[in-house]
Structures are given as structure tokens and as C-alpha cells.
TrEMBL record, chain A:
It holds the Pfam family Transket_pyr. It comes from the Bacteria. This is Transketolase. SMART domains: Transket_pyr. The lineage of its organism: Bacteria, Bacillati, Actinomycetota, Actinomycetes, Micromonosporales. Residues 1-164 form the Transketolase-like pyrimidine-binding domain. InterPro entries: PDH/Transketolase, THDP-binding, Transketo_C/PFOR_II, Transketolase-like_Pyr-bd.
TrEMBL record, chain B:
PANTHER family: TRANSKETOLASE, TRANSKETOLASE N-TERMINAL SECTION-RELATED. This is Transketolase. Residues 17-207 form the Transketolase N-terminal domain. Gene3D superfamilies: 3.40.50.970.
Length: 296, 224
């Protein structure tokens, strides 16, 4: 996904004189050609993440559309007050485009992991959150964000599905496997492959979204039955979208399972697959929790 | 500064404090009266100078100057901080004409100012200058030092920091404030923050190729 991001951003910088990119060393090598072509709009501030976000706020105050790019924990967590005050509170907009979400950097340890990033962004109003599940979804989502005038969080990962499911940017739920029971499993971004495998043989509608915010509430209501069981599986903090699903179904009796990354700091290295297993997000773990949930 | 005594009294409901109780007042007045190329008519002009009040607390002097210069109606000066008054105890740029940034939490204005200066440059707007007012205690916030180091490294010469030094930083700044900037390649002038001619000279002392800081020294730990 990082390659798709670099390629699309480089192209967009050439097309749109309003677009700018702010870096804090990470990915700077990949943007050398773009920086050479647009030295005033590709800015690497060094290892200064607070400044990176504030500079984006300042650029936006003069009418530019900034993209901020770094590792998720350094953008959203280290510079959180800058996101809240220097972008959101100023009433200006930016695209925060992160890599290294959740446990991509499993062997690097907790300092390089930010499973709470979407939950933090979700404390703000009016942000669009994009969680592409495949590299081919990155370009269309980034183009849509660049042409928009609202704040966007684009969360990229090295975890991907085997194929792109939705390259449109309308944010609607996409049915991947229909069911007849009225029960629904919603897979967000790169969790789809595991959710699809885990629900094999269960009579549930499997739906996919790369856009948890704004959540397609109407789409969920049209897929869900009168008294549905709904599971949402997210590649970040478990429960992050529980409130939007509950709100979508507030006029229907329903059961809800909100699965995702747990809160515990595991103090473990290993591979992303090890971490997926530890959080119950691998196909076997999801199979256990989803089959128990849908057939209680 | 008798010109501002009336709006200040109206803002604070306090007839006793003389204008000299406000450490920022003289610098703000000289900025708006003599230096900044901005007026109520040009407050949205891309070619205007930008003034960013980073030290957002105690904004009475700022509001008084904005009222005196016609950016905001005098009536707003009554009832600062009330639900239906746009003037709060920290300024909100979405509520108050002429306010470039919403401030309050310390250490945000100078980094934002770096971004504003870079945004203007990227659009070929080479005439406007960006002035950011910070307090000497506010410099404790590490985010300022990211901005100071980076602006110096890239020679961001459309940026002027204005530090109000009323010696309120808990641990002080050994060897003074200006050195924190000059070691990073800034030019610096330190002067009496009550002397209007020296304030103006210090604010105008910027040089090509380097950001500039003017340190205005005032009485120790006066009010805002």
C-alpha cells in the first residue's frame, strides 16, 4: 500500500497545485523525485512529528490541501494535540495518511504500534476514515480525499486481502457473500479474507467496507433482518465501531459482536500473523468467536 | 497607551489596572499601528501580513487593539467569556475577525506560523510576513524548539517570532532567550518592551535568508 500511496501522491502533486505533502523523515527517500519536482510543496521537517502536523495546519490556513504522512503512532498519538488543535480546532482540513497500523511492525514492539488510532480520530467530528484492504484501493481513496475539502484519515497496512473488493469511494457496504438469515458480518479493510474464511458455511451475509467513518448505516439496515445478529471485525481497537453499528440498529432488537485488536500491551514481538492469532483475528480465532456468536 | 485604557477597562471591568499591567500591550499596539500590513478591509487578503497570537491566555490587550483598529465592534468588549460573546478567554479564529489562529494550549503558534510561512511561499506570495507572539514561559513547550530548529535550518526569512519576556518561565532561560534562536541561525534583537520606537526597530530588523526574533523585555511577572 505504501508504494501505491507514493505513486498516487507523486502524481497528484503534479496535477494539483493546491496539494502539499509534509513528512517527518519516514518515506522521505520514496518521495525524493516529488520533492525535486515540487520543493515548496514537499516538506520534510526531520524527526519532528509535532511540527509536521502543525505545519500542515499552517499550510491549510493559507489554502493548501496538506497530506501528512508517517507511522500511525507518530502521527496520531505522539502529535495528538496538534491533530486536535492545529487542524481540527482551527477549522481547516488535512489528509493524515499513515502506515504501520496496529501490528504491522510486530517485531518492532509496542512503540511502533497504534491499534487505538481510529478510536482517537473518532473523538473528532466529521472525519472520513478510510481503511483500504488492498493496495489497489489506495489510489482511488486517496484521489477522492485529495479532491475533497474535509478531514480524512487514510490508514494503510502491510496486511492486505488477496484482492481489491471496492475501488469506489462512496463508502457503501459491499456484499461479498449473501446470506438468508438476516445476520450480518461486516469486515473492515484487511480483515476481509479472515472473516470470509471464518464464516464459510454460516448463514450470514458477509459485507465489506473500507470506510468505517462515516459508517454506511443505511446499507447495514438494508442487509440486516428484523432481529439480526451483527458482527463487525476491525483491524484496530476492538469496539471502535460498536457505537455506530448500535446507532444504525437502534430501532431494532439486535445482538452485536465487535471484534478487533485487544487493549493489552502483549510485550511480544513475532510476526503480524502471531499478533492476529493472539487477538483472535486469524481465521481460526474468528471462526471460534463468530460461530459461537451467530449460533448461540 | 491611554488610547487603549478605555477598551481595556471595558473588557476587564477593572478601572484600576493601568495599561502597563498588560505585558503584551505595547508590542501589540506597535505591531498593529506601525508594522503589520493588515486592516479590517484586508483581513482575508492573501497578500496581508499574518499575526498569530500563540500565547492565547489573557487576550484582553489583543482584543483591545483589535477593537481600536476596527476589526471588532466595541460592544463585544462587554462580557468577555459569556455564552453569547465571541470573545473568550482564549481567542477563537472562527469567531473573531482578524484572529488568525485559535490559541490557548501553549506551543502551537510558532509551529503553525512555520506552516503559514511555507504555505505562502509555496503559492508565490513573497510579500507577506508572518509574526508569531509567544511568551517566555511558553518557550518551555518543546514543540517551539522543533519550530525554532527547523525554521533556522531552512532559512525561513518571512517568519518573525516575538517573545514577550516578563521572566515568568519557572526555570528561566540561562544566558537569555535570544541565544535559543541565534544558535539555530536566527537573527535576534532584544529591547525594552515598553519603548515603542525600539519595539518597531526590533520588529523590522529581519534580514534576508534567516528568520528573525524580537525579544521584548517587560517588567517581571506582570499580568497578562
Amino acid at each position: 500500500m505504501r508504494e501505491a500511496f507514493v505513486e498516487t501522491t507523486t502524481a497528484l502533486l503534479a496535477e494539483d497545485p493546491r496539494l502539499s505533502l509534509v513528512l517527518a523523515d519516514i518515506s522521505a527517500d520514496a518521495f525524493v523525485p516529488a520533492a525535486r519536482a515540487h520543493p515548496d510543496r514537499v516538506l520534510n521537517v526531520g524527526i519532528r512529528e509535532q511540527l509536521m502536523v502543525s505545519v500542515a495546519g499552517g499550510l491549510a490556513l493559507t489554502g493548501l490541501r496538506p497530506i501528512v504522512h508517517s507511522y500511525a503512532p507518530f502521527v496520531v498519538e505522539r502529535a495528538w494535540e496538534q491533530v486536535k488543535l492545529d487542524i481540527d480546532h482551527q477549522g481547516v482540513d488535512a489528509i493524515l495518511a499513515t502506515i504501520g497500523s496496529s501490528y504491522d511492525a510486530s517485531a518492532s514492539g509496542r512503540t511502533h504500534q497504534a491499534p487505538g488510532d481510529v478510536a482517537l480520530i473518532d473523538t473528532l467530528d466529521g472525519w472520513t476514515v478510510r481503511v483500504p484492504g488492498h493496495a489497489d484501493e489506495v489510489g482511488p481513496l486517496l484521489r477522492a480525499a485529495a479532491g475533497d475539502d474535509s478531514p480524512v484519515y487514510l490508514r494503510m497496512s502491510t496486511e492486505t486481502n488477496t484482492r481489491a473488493v471496492d475501488t469506489a469511494a462512496d463508502g457503501r457496504l459491499t456484499v461479498v457473500r449473501p446470506g438468508s438469515s438476516g445476520d450480518v458480518a461486516v469486515a473492515v479493510g484487511p480483515t476481509l479474507d479472515a472473516v470470509f474464511a471464518a464464516t464459510e458455511g454460516l448463514d450470514v451475509t458477509v459485507a465489506y467496507t473500507h470506510t468505517p467513518r462515516p459508517f454506511d448505516a443505511a446499507g447495514l439496515r438494508s442487509l440486516a433482518g428484523a432481529t439480526p445478529a451483527v458482527a463487525i471485525v476491525e483491524p484496530y481497537l476492538a469496539g471502535t465501531s460498536a457505537r455506530v453499528v448500535a446507532d444504525a440498529l437502534r430501532m431494532r432488537p439486535h445482538r452485536l459482536a465487535a471484534l478487533g485488536v485487544g487493549r493489552a500491551d502483549l510485550h511480544r514481538y513475532g510476526t503480524p500473523a502471531d499478533h492476529a492469532r493472539a487477538h483472535g483475528l486469524d481465521p481460526a480465532g474468528l471462526r471460534r468467536s463468530l460461530s459461537a456468536f451467530f449460533r448461540p | 497607551m491611554t488610547v487603549l485604557a478605555s477598551p481595556l477597562a471595558r473588557l476587564t471591568g477593572d478601572e484600576k489596572h493601568s495599561p502597563s499591567a498588560y505585558s503584551t500591550l505595547d508590542v501589540l499596539w506597535v505591531l498593529y499601528d506601525r508594522v503589520l500590513r493588515v486592516s479590517p478591509q484586508t483581513a482575508d487578503d492573501p497578500e496581508r501580513d499574518y499575526f498569530l497570537l500563540s500565547k492565547g491566555h489573557g487576550p484582553a490587550a489583543f482584543y483591545a487593539v483589535l477593537a481600536e483598529k476596527g476589526f471588532i465592534p466595541d460592544e463585544w468588549l462587554d462580557g468577555m467569556g459569556r455564552w453569547d460573546n465571541p470573545l473568550g478567554h482564549h481567542p477563537d479564529r472562527l469567531l473573531v475577525p482578524g484572529v488568525e489562529i485559535s490559541s490557548g494550549s501553549l506551543g502551537h503558534g510558532l509551529p503553525l506560523g512555520v506552516g503559514v510561512a511555507l504555505g505562502l511561499r509555496a503559492q508565490g506570495l513573497t510579500r507577506p510576513r508572518v509574526y508569531v507572539l509567544v511568551g517566555d514561559a511558553e518557550l518551555d513547550e518543546g514543540s517551539n524548539h522543533e519550530a525554532i530548529a527547523y525554521a533556522g535550518a531552512i532559512g525561513l526569512d518571512s517568519l518573525t517570532a516575538v517573545v514577550i519576556d516578563n521572566q515568568s518561565a519557572t526555570h528561566g532561560w540561562r544566558d537569555g532567550i535570544a541565544g535559543r534562536f541565534t544558535v539555530n541561525g536566527w537573527t535576534a534583537v532584544t529591547a525594552d518592551g515598553r519603548d515603542h520606537d525600539r519595539i518597531e526597530a526590533g520588529l523590522r530588523a529581519h534580514q534576508p535568508g534567516r528568520p528573525h526574533v524580537f525579544v521584548a523585555v517587560t517588567e517581571q511577572k506582570w499580568g497578562a
